[in-house]
Amino acid sequence: xxxxxxxxxxxxxxxxxxxxxxxxxxxxxxxxxxxxxxxxxxxxxxxxxxxxxxxxxxxxxxxxxxxxxxxxxxxxxxxxxxxxxxxxxxxxxxxxxxxxxxxxxxxxxxxxxxxxxxxxxxxxxxxxxxxxxxxxxxxxxxxxxxxxxxxxxxxxxxxxxxxxxxxxxxxxxxxxxxxxxxxxxxxxxxxxxxxxxxxxxxxxxxxxxxxxxxxxxxxxxxxxxxxxxxxxxxxxxxxxxxxxxxxxxxxxxxxxxxxxxxxxxxxxxxxxxxxxxxxxxxxxxxxxxxxxxxxxxxxxxxxxxxxxxxxxxxxxxxxxxxxxxxxxxxxxxxxxxxxxxxxxxxxxxxxxxxxxxxxxxxxxxxxxxxxxxxxxxxxxxxxxxxx
Amino acid sequence: xxxxxxxxxxxxxxxxxxxxxxxxxxxxxxxxxxxxxxxxxxxxxxxxxxxxxxxxxxxxxxxxxxxxxxxxxxxxxxxxxxxxxxxxxxxxxxxxxxxxxxxxxxxxxxxxxxxxxxxxxxxxxxxxxxxxxxxxxxxxxxxxxxxxxxxxxxxxxxxxxxxxxxxxxxxxxxxxxxxxxxxxxxxxxxxxxxxxxxxxxxxxxxxxxxxxxxxxxxxxxxxxxxxxxxxxxxxxxxxxxxxxxxxxxxxxxxxxxxxxxxxxxxxxxxxxxxxxxxxxxxxxxxxxxxxxxxxxxxxxxxxxxxxxxxxxxxxxxxxxxxxxxxxxxxxxxxxxxxxxxxxxxxxxxxxxxxxxxxxxxxxxxxxx
Lengths: 387, 368
Prior knowledge:
- The complex is a heterodimer.
- Chain A is an alpha/beta fold.
- Chain A folds into two domains: 3-9 and 255-386, Aspartate Aminotransferase, domain 1, CATH 3.90.1150.10; 15-250, Aspartate Aminotransferase, domain 2 (3-Layer(aba) Sandwich).
- In chain A, 41% of the residues lie in helices and 14% in strands.
- In chain A, α6 (158-167) links the parallel β5 and β6 (170-174).
- In chain A, the strands form three sheets. In chain A, strands 2-8-7-6-5-3-4 form a seven-stranded mixed beta sheet, sandwiched between helices.
- Chain B is of the alpha/beta class.
- In chain B, β5 (132-135) and β6 form a beta hairpin.
- Chain B starts with a strand and ends with a helix.
- Chain B contains nine helices and 17 strands.
- Chain B has three domains: 4-186, HUPs (Rossmann fold, 3-Layer(aba) Sandwich), CATH 3.40.50; 222-278, SH3 type barrels; 283-367, Translation factors (Elongation Factor Tu (Ef-tu), domain 3).
- The radius of gyration of chain B is 22 Å and the shape is globular.
- The interface between A and B is medium-sized, with 25 and 28 residues.
């Protein structure tokens, strides 16, 4: 069995989610919007799931809109907010966001909107002061990630809520990587919108949610039936929602213990590799990071080569923005943090999760330095590779 | 423990069958497709989000899935640009006619890819080339022509030495193309009936001159005159990169007799045109000589057959390699047109002895 250390790309399905889904599979039928009793039963299950998802971010169930995933949630937040705030033409974000934020912003830019992408510091922190400096009465939306998917940096976004409120702008937080790993509370954050992803916390992929504080300030982007408070048309994905609800509940129950356990596994892994690999660099801050995420620059090797070599040894990690067809562009997050192209190409993301064991981490801590030595000897970085 | 083989897969039928064959032979197979082209070719570039939708890689991936071995696409664009494409462009700008496939084999498949193979703990590299490797009773390795003469690719492989041959597998060397296709169909490979690929993958439209112009600064181009053998100006041209030895079209000369490019003088920008019989030369000088087996002593005159363009027949010649890894080759009789930049490969019967890159033709005066 491979050792899976790519939880930030997608966590293995939790047993609770799998069980909930198989119960539902045996007893399928009924559109939650239908009047008959099959429909009512489906609706009840959907609402239980909604309450479970709401609970993990401290929201009211009615404030949760199910979507097809984190990407759709971010798209709904951005295009929905821009449409609702018809007069305002400015949107503020950062350079280190997920593609499901950056691509919608690029699209808005193409349509003539005023867009600002704030630079982070060298640890991947976005200074709220920099956001404040560009925030004005033209701003419709500020959208930032709570925890960065590539390096794990956690942003201090609480100061932004009042600033946005005063400027009349909406605050959208992409919390896909944070929910289920660290406590997330919409009231404490004071945000207007918050995106969640199911499969990052152990649900099946294909389900996500958007927390919406005030429906009057968001417009739908998918039109059809009056599902999800009129904010997301289409027959709800009941299987996905049930999986998401069960996984969210399990993640929340386990979080306190799990985050400590995973954090100490990650810390011991880092200590062991660091000892064996001179010049190894941890990207991101020492404190204020997701406990499960290690983004490491391995000296003198191509990350792509390490990634494949590790996979052949049964260790599954990733490069931040890897692409299955091999056009691996250097991570935009590491570049924005000031790392060179060469360093970005030498970096790998190791992200732990709920199912990793101490034995696995022990094995990985021994294998990674061995693989690094082999790759560094066999395939030292050439001039060309760093271009 | 099973020996690991890294198989270079293009998504074409040859490398697909090569991979399937080493898999059937019981090796621990790892398939890799190399992303080489600096820019996607035009039809793909028009699609959105090209990077994850390359059809050829998907074909290779399907073969790997069917034959149940791991498969990866690796990004060698920077190496390919620096070591193959830049060379291709500068050779053309210098009045030579390069052979990028030879360069790609030397620099990418049997150097860069080999480093990757070692990094991935592979013992061998396998490719879909049509050529054979045999080990003699003395332990030395021999590089031989393919069984299928029409597909023989040994010309592109002369840079391989003993170290490389010891760790290389050419599963298709003893097969004909027809057999390879039949094998692919029998294995149920999706690539069985794919058409042959073009010879120069990064210039899919075949317009080398335009490619060189796109890759160069205007100041690097060498425009000048087309002249006859006596130096009389016949026409103007926009750059020596537009010509190759033996070329007849595009000279811009209205002449009663057929004229061919005889010589390209990059320094002066002169392209010398002449009659067909003026093209021939008695021999050539080649540089960057590489021998499959270095025990062929330098300085000694050897009787060989030389092939000076991929599609040419090998012709009898004598060769002498000096210590500077240069060689002088003299054709046994009536030599063909010699094209600087092309590979010159030495054969003895079925066997490849080595080769080099053509520096220049020897003229009649020098021969006397």
